[in-house]
Amino acid sequence: MLHWLLLKIQSTEPQADALSDVLMAHGALSVSIEDAHADTLAEQAIFGEPGDPPPGIWQQNVVTAMLEADADIQTLLANVQAELGLDGLKYQLEQIEEQDWVRATQAQFDPIRVTDDLWIVPSWHQAPNADAINIVLDPGLAFGTGSHPTTHLCLSWLAQLPKPLLATANVLDYGCGSGILAIAAKKLGAQSATGVDIDTQAVIASRDNALNNQVDAIFYDSAEYLHEPFEIVVANILSSALMVLAPVIASSCKSGGKVALSGILDSQQEILLAHYATWFEMDAPIQQDGWVLLTGTRRCP
Q1: Hey, which CATH number is domain 3-98, 3.30.70.120, 3.40.109.10, 3.60.150.10, 2.20.25.90?
Q2: For strand 291-298 and strand 253-265, is the pairing parallel, antiparallel, or unpaired?
Q3: What does each C-alpha distance from 24 to 63, 80, 166 come to in angstroms?
Q4: What residue numbers does the annotated binding site for S-adenosyl-L-methionine cover?
Q5: Which positions bind S-adenosyl-L-methionine (predicted)?
Q6: Which of 42, 127, 176, 221 could be cross-linked to 195 through a Cys-Cys bond (beta carbons 3.0 to 4.6 Å apart)?
Q7: What pLDDT is attached to residue 226?
Q8: 76-121 tens-digit pLDDT
């Protein structure tokens, strides 16, 4: 059976990038930099939303290089230390066996229950409830498999809307990702469902997912989208984008229409509630695992 070697080198912040570059130059198949204290109380959170200033990397790191099984580790380490002027690097060496990566990846994704009557089911699984509304969706390039609390909050909200309301509603999924919310709306009984996204790959994925679910939903690139008002607007995007796009989202919702906003951390809800109150009569926030869903009704312009 084939196998590879994982060389894990302890590193400080100033060394990590240089170590990564030199290891790649000396034949590493891949290199990653991780927090040396990951999964401990000392774990350091460094990532913010897109647009935030780059925070750098962790103070203490593990630089991991994936190498061919016959790699000469001692020669590699000697070359790396010589080029970077280092001495006595601390490291660990592990062996990783070849395996069925597709099967291993699939094993991480089980059907996701939204409600008893609404499930997200990967294509390689049997639906737990054949009589439920089952959305067939595989993890892919686009965000939105139903596993994240922000998506789950939106799906639960859609599932709880009155059936007569949905039956006469045109639904807009703003920032559609995988298209899951538009697909769910249509399967739940919406008159029509439309999705729009700035990412071309998301639009392609959404169209493919709609086809796989035998759903008649329309998806546009944001550059081609013709703005028109909808009875229901759902936007599961970053809170920073929700702030900037608030006027556009408001103009996309008819008077008396419903809006649902997700992608919001608990600490971000107050500023967004105040901002959207300009256009909407806002409801009490709905929380799940530190994330918040904001909903409201469009006032007359």
Answers
A1: 3.30.70.120
A2: antiparallel
A3: 11, 10, 54
A4: 151, 175, 197, 236
A5: 151, 175, 197, 236
A6: 176
A7: 67
A8: 999 999 999 988 889 999 887 665 544 555 555 778 889 999 998 8
